Amino acid sequence: MEDIIGNALLDYQAGKHTEDITTYSSLDEVDSILLPYLFRSFDEMPRLEQKALELAKGNVLDIGCGAGSHTLYLQNKGLNVSALDSSKGAMKVCEKRGVKKMIHSKILDFEYFKFDTLLLLMNGIGLAGKIIDLGYFLKHLKTLLNPNGQILLDSSDIIYMFDKDEDGGFWVPDTGSYYGEVTFTMEYKGQKSSPFEWLYIDFNTLKKVCKSNGFNCELVSKGKHYDYLAKLSLSV
């Protein structure tokens, strides 16, 4: 895939911020990824992210690290943290910002070390793509965890994006697929990415998939708008 995010991060780091990343989705939504937000400090982060960083322990892998904001916070706290991203541009930005340990790889291709904490923030579980692939994704993460390790992830139940019916429930079209599966395309300075799949998952569905794949799934806290932070640990 074209390194849309990497190119945008490099521009912002170099002081060349003239536009943000535009996203187009299968939900007929046009939105933006604001570049300054990707360089935010701890105080500027949502409470769910702050809580996850407070719970991080031991050797930490920040999956889909982007500009490295979470990594830098943990690094400054004295934790042994590695930043992983498939974007070459993101890795260059992390280096420029002072991240000490970087891994340029897709998470499903990485298999060399074990960690006490895996971070999947900013809906990092979306990397699984589709609900049918989530079990395989979790099994791979299991191979990266130490016996008493944990996965900290935030996600959102995007049911709120659908129309309500007369009974107050939500009307979700029967497409044959899980409603949280979204196809995205990104655009930056006239360059468009190839379409890619991204998963948003409600907590109850996440808990069921976790149970069938050897994980305990605990709801740590809820956000203000259908979002939540979950902690996954290996079942005994």
Using brief descriptors, characterize the structure shown.
globular, five-stranded antiparallel beta sheet, 7 helices, 236 residues, alpha/beta, seven-stranded mixed beta sheet
Question: Can you describe this structure?
Answer:
The structure is a single chain. The protein has 236 residues and is an alpha/beta fold. It contains seven helices and twelve strands. It has helices at residues 4-13, 35-38, 47-55, 69-76, 88-97, 131-142, 203-212, and strands at 21-25, 30-33, 59-63, 80-85, 102-104, 115-120, 145-156, 181-188, 191-192, 196-199, 215-222, 227-234. The longest helix is centred in the middle third of the chain and has 12 residues, at 131-142.
Write the layout of secondary structure elements.
Layout: H1 4-13, E1 21-25, E2 30-33, H2 35-38, H3 47-55, E3 59-63, H4 69-76, E4 80-85, H5 88-97, E5 102-104, E6 115-120, H6 131-142, E7 145-156, E8 181-188, E9 191-192, E10 196-199, H7 203-212, E11 215-222, E12 227-234
Parallel strand pairs: 3-4, 3-6, 4-5, 6-7
Antiparallel strand pairs: 1-2, 1-8, 7-12, 8-9, 8-10, 11-12
